Amino acid sequence: MALHRITTSTWGATFKRAKLVYTAVVRPAITYAAPIWFSPAGAEATKNNLIDKLNKIQNRCLRTIAGAYKATPTPLLESETDIPPIRTHLAMLQAQHQARTKNLPTRALVKKACKRIQMQLQGQRGRQRIRKTTPGNRKEAWFDSLGIDSTSRQPVRIQIRKWAQEQWTKEWEEHRDKIPPDKRPTAYTNRMHPSIHDGLTKAESSLAIQLRTERTGLKAFLYDRKVPNVTATCTCGHPRQTVKHVMLYCLDRSDRTTFLGRLGLIDFYYILSNKDTLLKPLR
Ligand SMILES: [Zn+2]
Questions:
Q1: Which of 171, 220, 249, 250 has a CA that sits 20 to 30 A from residue 144's CA?
Q2: What is the Å distance from ligand 1's center to 228 Cα?
Q3: Confidence category of residue 150, pLDDT binned at 50, 70, 90
Q4: How many domains does the chain have?
């Protein structure tokens, strides 16, 4: 895959660049003409196995962009890269398309012609029932149900983006709430502003995401993933070598007091959610 080649070549595309390749080249290709084939709701809802295939492609790309471990949960991969689930993105494309074509004169013309044909057919076949709802009608009805207000001062395009963002947040929170609060890595506690990656090298971005998702080369994670011949014990003797342990408590990290002293705080989640503090332990 092109994206993979770009990011793993010797110079290594940064997070920002790799993400741009995905959103500007790969995603438009895999969602091409989506308003025609994708239906967000009702009986015509697009089959899950097609969406699953697109999901797999997107996941592979997001892992490459993030430099994240395979074990990183998809919702975290999406929130850390700030790229919505593919189904949400497809629904947004459909909504934008509906908004664009809603009041076009051609649509009214087509509708009128369809109606005339329908009436003629009804006339010929007597009382034979003609299907009234078409997939096109259903997509329109779906769009009308979103509550987009074309008379609002806020542009429709922005309203649709907001709607998609809300859908995403709702799903993401449902996923998060299934994980016990004490087992949630930083990435679930504080969502990070994507600009945090500005100016970071690829390695720094990857490490930041690995620390925030706790999917990293530390021994507690490797042990949980059942990597052979690995124990969860830290070099200092602590039973679990986690991100939090290494950053805040490990006796073997003599530089820790130095960087924590420099930070002047030990709010773990804060450290891993702000660019200034995140970079210090990385560098
Ligand atoms: Zn330790």
A1: 171
A2: 20
A3: confident
A4: 2
